Backbone:
């Protein structure tokens, strides 16, 4: 939990968020250490440097040696001081610490009395599991003020004598409002009183300030999945997006666009092998012309081609029949109804038993002509 955050705050804003500014809002008097390592980012991950507010004793000339807060740039991901000098530090191993068990584990228990610190960020990311996928959400205050996390820090010396300062962010059970998203959340110190209790290293019951943040001013919204890549950075990380519906069927949507009842095929053109959707069948020729059939399988191509050929042959036959009817009507209208047939002498063909049509019956001749064809 809390493995990604946004932090673009300068030292002055960090000090102000942690209650270190004076009455006029001036935080310039707060000491800063190693801030040249800090790189503001919209997508901070373990292993990066962040400004951390900690308390340290002042110099020898400071009277009784009281502690004063400083802003120290430390690396996110705790490396305990007892880690072997030759060991390569793993900052993803302890970038979070469960607040319920910090008194039980040696890595954290020894840090509670003297090594508490504060981490100020503008927001953090959490992923919602959705089957095999995860959807990221950006969580922040609705008035965009910084969030202040409770944290612990430690110092480790490597084989080269270099001192590395690292920290871990404390987590707790999720608030009632965020249980749908994740079962854990960072410990958010809700006011100056809780900040002072944690930073001044007092020893009351820490459970009172290490519980989940339940106030309603903590809000969230979905963001791009690209934030899953540590290299992805910039304002696009916190841009709100609209989640797509999981019930969409792109293929059925494709066919539904071609529905047009006014141009549907007549009933006499349907066959037992026709497509289940009439609109898809009626638009076969358009799909062939537009080369959209390339998106279908070979069986679908063959099926559509057969239907198109069938529809084309039936159209030709219908057109021929239409021409016959027009000639029939024309022949009928061209012969007056009062005209009588002329009786001719029997021809040799009649003597042989063959029937000869009347020369005035032109309609029969045209029908015979089309019949031969």
Residues:
């Amino acid at each position: 939990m809390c493995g990604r955050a946004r932090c673009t705050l300068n030292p002055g804003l960090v000090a102000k968020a942690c209650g270190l500014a004076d009455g006029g809002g001036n935080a310039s008097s707060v000491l800063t250490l190693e801030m040249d390592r800090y790189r503001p980012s919209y997508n901070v991950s373990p292993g990066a440097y962040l400004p951390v507010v900690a308390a340290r004793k002042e110099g020898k000339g400071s009277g009784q040696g009281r502690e004063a807060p400083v802003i120290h740039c430390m690396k996110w991901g705790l490396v305990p001081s007892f880690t072997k000098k030759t060991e390569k530090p793993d900052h993803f191993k302890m970038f979070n610490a469960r607040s319920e068990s910090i008194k039980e584990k040696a890595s954290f228990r020894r840090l509670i009395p003297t090594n508490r610190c504060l981490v100020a960020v503008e927001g953090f990311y959490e992923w919602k599991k959705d089957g095999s996928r995860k959807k990221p959400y950006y969580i922040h205050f609705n008035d965009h003020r910084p969030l202040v996390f409770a944290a612990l820090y430690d110092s480790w010396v490597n084989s080269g004598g270099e001192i590395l300062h690292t920290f871990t962010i404390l987590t707790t059970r999720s608030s009632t409002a965020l249980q749908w998203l994740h079962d854990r959340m960072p410990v958010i110190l809700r006011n100056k009183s809780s900040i002072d209790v944690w930073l001044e290293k007092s020893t009351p019951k820490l459970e009172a300030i290490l519980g989940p943040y339940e106030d309603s001013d903590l809000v969230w919204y979905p963001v791009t999945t690209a934030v899953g890549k540590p290299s992805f950075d910039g304002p696009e990380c916190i841009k709100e997006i609209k989640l797509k519906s999981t019930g969409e069927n792109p293929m059925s949507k494709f066919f539904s666009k071609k529905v047009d009842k006014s141009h549907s095929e007549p009933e006499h053109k349907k066959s037992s092998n026709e497509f289940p959707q009439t609109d898809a069948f009626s638009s076969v020729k358009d799909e062939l012309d537009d080369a959209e059939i390339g998106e279908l399988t070979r069986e679908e191509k063959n099926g559509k081609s057969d239907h198109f050929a069938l529809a084309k042959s039936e159209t030709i036959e219908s057109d021929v029949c239409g021409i016959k009817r027009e000639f029939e009507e024309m022949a009928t209208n061209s012969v007056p109804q009062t005209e009588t047939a002329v009786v001719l002498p029997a021809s040799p063909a009649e003597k042989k038993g063959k029937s000869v049509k009347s020369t005035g019956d032109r309609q029969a001749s045209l029908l015979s002509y089309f019949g031969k064809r």
